[in-house]
Amino acid sequence: MMPVTLVRAERLTLAVLMCGVASLALSDFVSPGYWLLAALAAVLRLLVGPRLALSELQASLIGWGGFVWVGLELAMGRAWVVAFTDFLLILSLAVTIEAATPRNHLHRMLVGLFLLLAAAVLTDSVLYIFPVAAFLWFMWRAAACLYGLNWPGGDLPGVAPGRDARLMLGIALATAAGFVLLPRFDVHSVLKPTQPRMQISGFTDEVQLGDFARELDPTVVLRIEAVGVAPERMERLLGGRYWRGVPLGRFTGSGWERLMQADIRRTGRGQDLRLGSGEGFGIAVFREASNHPYLQLPAGVQVIHDLPEPALMDAGGALRFEQAPARRLRIRMDVAARPAMLPDLAAPLPDERDISRVPPELTAWVRSLAEPGDTPAQTLSRVVAELQSWQYDLHAPIDAAHPVVSFLKSRRGHCELYATALALAARALGFPSRVVNGYYGGEWNDVGSFLLIRQQHAHSWVEVWQAGGWQRLDATPPARWQLSGVRFPLLDDVWETVRLSWYRYVLEFQNQDRTGLVRSVWQAVHDYGAKTLAVAVVLLLLGIGVRMVVRLLRRTASPIGMVDRWLLRHGIERLPHQPLRCLPAPAGIGDAAWQGFVRGWEMQAYAGVPAWSRARTRRELRALSA
Amino acid sequence: MAYDPADLRLPPWLLRFFDALVRLRLPLGTNWRIGMTRPGILLTGALVGIWLAAFYSGNNLLYLCGAMLTALAAAAVLRGIRLLRNLPSLDVFEVPVLEAGEAAVLRESQQRQSDTAAIVETEFHSSDMQLALQLRVEPVQTTLQGRLKPERRGVFVHGHEILSTTAPLGLYALSYARGSTASIVVMPKACAWVDAGQLSRTLQEGDEWRDLRAYAAGDSLARVHWRKATMEARDWTVKRFARHEQDEADDWLCVDLRLPDGMAAERFEMLLGKAWFWLKSRRQGRIDIGRQSFDLAMPEARRQAIVALAAARSESMPPAMGGIRLSLVEGSA
Q1: Distance (Å, rounded) from C-alpha B290 to C-alpha A580?
Q2: Which ipTM did the prediction report?
Q3: CB–CB of A146 and B2 under 8 A?
Q4: Is the N or the C terminus of chain B less surrounded, counting Cβ atoms within 10 Å?
């Protein structure tokens, strides 16, 4: 039968380990089977007890087996990061069911810590805070428990959890203070939290019609918050903007290809990219990691500040990072309050005038829409109006061989088809044109006052070269923007607000945010009423004051407090740890009388006789003085 | 403590390095020193690594972990400081009177609330003596424990005490030096009265049982206390009987502290040992130690008599006459 303290130590160290496993399980790189195996072993160990144990040799064999297995995984082409996490979790399985020895306790605590640190690099989930908080609690309790084992005279009993809970609150506050105050150097980003790249189609060099913007996928791709702008103004300013991604200039008959244009500008890490001028407002864009390197730019973007990764901008106005980032990025931009026309972009390339692949049926259809005496521009407007009157249908079948012709017949389809039909119609009318894939609009989050752009906001529109510049035209029926794949909007708003707060105040907290944090707090004070806060502060101070007074009263009103005050009056100051017998007889008090008093005091304090009441203490002191 | 990196079967050179670090003690303000234990070295090493990685990468989750573990380590240190600062002095515990050369096991408890379970090593230093004890601090009681074997007699008033602990987590070793007014009373080794010649008056035989004394050659075997006898004759005790009026005379011991010139100090210690032997067995009566007189019926006076005996020095003046006389001076009986 294992002693109670050892069982307690066994459970606590297991909890430390499981906190590490839970934190790593949050990583999207981890295969669920591996962490489930470790969790299941932990549950069995808890239920069965230390009887369910492998010897150290057997456990180390599991560890080595895991090492070999991971080697095989790597040889089979598995990503190193996935193989690494698999190995860590196999190791945690071995440590979980290893025999409960001092060595095993240390293994668990060290592996638990290592898993927690690995998760700091392999996940950026807001849920990470829970295993971290639990780790802090169990680490403290486990270390205190292990400290108390094997002393001469027996194991030390544990301290009640309530006593440690207040300490944990203090540690949490100190952690927050340390987190905010310590400087950031940001020498290299290799250990930044990573996330698996989202698989998004439509932002590649070649896009087949039907591959893009055809699903109501609520996955968030961009979160945009205002910097120094009131939220309600921000909603008005930022809503209904086009977020420009990839311009696609060559029509292949069944899809579009990006035209290779000379990169006109390379911007290094930490540099600003200026795209326009004028008065604007600041926004911070949180871009999720995805499999494409493009950064969608809002209409009216003027400056991109402090680029987090090197980027290239081509003549077609597409901005892309040198490689697809493997982590979430925060990008600060200045955006014009009123989005003007498209910025100065290069003149059309020959492929953007090409009508060789425009279907004859489409040309005939465009002619049928033209009224006698129409200019090409007027006819193009009629085409737009006609297309917008058609039915928007995400699930309309697409003829892969003749997608445009089938679309003209069915008059149903999604935005790609509308954009393609319009772009080709413009070319048929003699206007150079191209399709642009990006996002439109977005969804305003009322809880957190920020803009969300989801994958369901993916959109295709057209840029037409008119009057010496590129003009944006959108033929998609407005019914498109009534559709949404979000099932529980309110819950989703709350959850997204929590996530953005996590990104904003934890993952992306930088040196400059320290002042921003102070400003935000001040803004909150301003917004939510300085009076309310003042009342709260006054109440807080009052509470602290009352508590101090109660403590002081308790101290001075206690019998020992009365004795201390009496001693002070007689010129003797007693330190808290000094027993009375160490003090000399006070002036004017006989040695024998003082010794008698001390003896009486010690009898009631230590010898188990009834303790002196305040009245009794007062009587004794009065008798002593007499 | 049950988590030592040595359990990880680290290479000996690394453990030696750990031990060199463990021996380091850095000042932490006045009277305070701090060092690390082996697990503390592991944690500190991990903290250094985490902070380097955090500073290098700017990964805020590493900042979070680093700040949390640093706060945990700081909380451990602060709790240790609070524990040592609030520990009661040795005076609070009823330390028994010790005998020179005799080992005594001490275990004294006091009811006392604590938010930390800890073992605190306590060293008491005076000019003549050094004592090492252990305080076992539990949530509801504190126990002073240890094994003491004082080498010589005396009243040792401690100048200062050093409290050391690795509580509450066993990561950092804290030591705190503070003044102490506690005193330890060490009596001479009790010496049975085998040398009846030193007594000024011999006991008059009677029929009332009085006490026991050590066996001396020539004593009647009928008087030997056989139930307490062992194989060794030197351990035997003899029952003594006396008349009532004689008891009254026997309850007054007069210890002459004069040490004749040239006599060995051991004889003086033996004299005091005999007095202590007599004093131990009395709950009432009177003892004169040199020129001082104590009424043993009064607890305070009895305590003072013990302290006076422990601190006794040779004197030149004879004591007042009366009672049983213990003296090293020839013909003073």
Answers
A1: 30
A2: 0.77
A3: yes
A4: C
